[in-house]
Design a protein that fits this description.
It is a single chain. By secondary structure, the protein is α/β, with parallel strands linked by helices. The protein has a seven-stranded mixed beta sheet with strand order 4-10-9-8-7-5-6, sandwiched between helices. Helix 6 packs parallel to helix 7. The radius of gyration is 21 Å and the shape is globular. The two termini are about 40 Å apart.
């Protein structure tokens, strides 16, 4: 594209109701934010699933670690290897029941780094049609042949595995979200493992929206299904349930060592500062606590069930499921924007999801519930949404 074409392309984006802009929001608590004009909102558009961003012990841990500096000033392979990050990796590996783990700067960069390092032009990657953009981009930059199978459809994947030749000098991979970020549904992990036994591929599962959300103790997709083995690499993020920033790959020590030496997003990125790692460490400690962690997860599930039932009773077209990601299908981008705008005017912050984040004709409101939302916040907001839905 020529620079002279930018204006025309922007006009086309606006005409299709898919133009995006940045709106500032300062979070006053785990559920309430304030904009630049001082208006306050109850927020249902964050991924702060357990509400730990404003947990006192997590904030105290970050404050204590800031004494070691506000930045790391270099990559971990040069000057930025903080004690807090090494401790965090050990705790993640223990929590996920894997041999080792490696922290990246973002969840997005984790998927890019893992796929870029492990796959190459001699590889074949089978990718779920509704995988997150970071997986799609990681597949692209790897240079591997990419085969897309229908969403969470094991029969579709099996047919493609059968008809796609095994690379002579390469590896076959299957990569998928654990909890899908736009629909909130859960991958058929038992089905994938059955196919893995038959076709012998490397299985990568992105648990970004699963950690702290599903599984008896919040360990994610594998625990949700009672599975202890079979996933080669579990991807995750520190920026959702763990209330910090960064991503991780939980895997064998051999794969971790290979990523340290081959994953360019890890090698060439300035390391996360100690205060971020300290916050994630403490958030993971809270989740790991048998009393506090289970209590937060139970509250999250209660709030999810309440919001889903209220929206369903109100007649809103939500996607059925059990996770705190609740899509309200609007179809058109214009309707999604109108609904979100009217809700903001009423003090409820929601996010309108439009193409290219979702396919054309499937625009939606992506509502997320957290453990920190009060019953009053949920009930009042659901009533507002009911009235606005009828209005539009």
């Amino acid at each position: 594209m020529k620079l002279s074409e930018i204006k025309e392309n922007l006009l086309a984006i606006k005409e299709n109701q898919n133009f995006r802009s940045v709106s500032d929001l300062r979070m006053l608590s785990a559920t309430r934010g304030i904009d630049g004009q001082g208006k306050e909102y109850v927020v249902f558009s964050s991924n702060n699933y357990l509400g730990l961003t404003h947990e006192k012990s997590v904030m105290d841990a970050a404050r204590a670690a800031v004494t070691f500096g506000t930045g790391s000033t270099g990559s971990r392979l040069t000057s930025g290897a903080s004690f807090e990050l090494s401790l965090l990796e050990k705790k993640i590996a223990d929590f996920k029941h894997t041999e080792s783990a490696l922290v990246f700067n973002t969840g997005y960069m984790t998927n890019l780094g893992v796929l870029y390092a492990l796959a190459d032009k001699s590889s074949v990657i089978f990718s779920d049609r509704l995988n997150h953009a970071s997986i799609i981009d990681g597949c692209r930059i790897s240079g591997a042949k990419v085969v897309v199978y229908e969403h969470n459809d094991m029969k579709s994947l099996e047919r493609l595995l059968e008809k796609t030749p095994v690379p002579a000098d390469g590896q076959r991979f299957v990569v998928t979200d654990g909890v899908f970020s736009m629909d909130g549904d859960i991958v058929d992990l038992p089905g994938l493992l059955n196919l893995k036994e038959k076709f012998d591929f490397c299985l990568i599962v992105d648990d970004a929206h699963a950690l702290g959300v599903i599984g008896k103790t919040g360990r994610g997709t594998a625990e949700h299904f009672g599975i202890t083995d079979g996933i080669d690499v579990q991807i995750g993020t520190l920026s959702k349930a763990l209330a910090a920033e960064g991503g991780y790959a939980s895997c064998s020590k051999e794969i971790r060592d290979y990523l340290v030496n081959k994953a360019r997003p890890f090698i060439f990125s300035t390391s996360l500062p100690p205060m971020v790692a300290a916050a994630a460490n403490q958030a993971l400690s809270v989740l790991s606590d048998s009393s506090k962690g289970l209590s937060l997860m139970e509250k999250l599930r209660e709030n999810t069930k309440l919001m889903r039932s209220l929206l369903e009773e109100a007649g809103l077209p939500i996607v059925q499921g059990s996770t705190p990601i609740i899509p309200i299908l609007t179809g058109s981008s214009q309707k999604a924007l109108k609904f979100a705008s009217f809700c903001r005017e009423a003090g409820v912050m929601l996010c309108a999801i439009r193409p290219p984040s979702v396919p054309e004709g499937t625009s939606r409101i992506r509502l997320t519930v957290t453990a920190a939302h009060s019953q009053e916040e949920i009930e009042k907001s659901a009533l507002i949404m009911k009235e606005i839905w009828r209005k539009i």
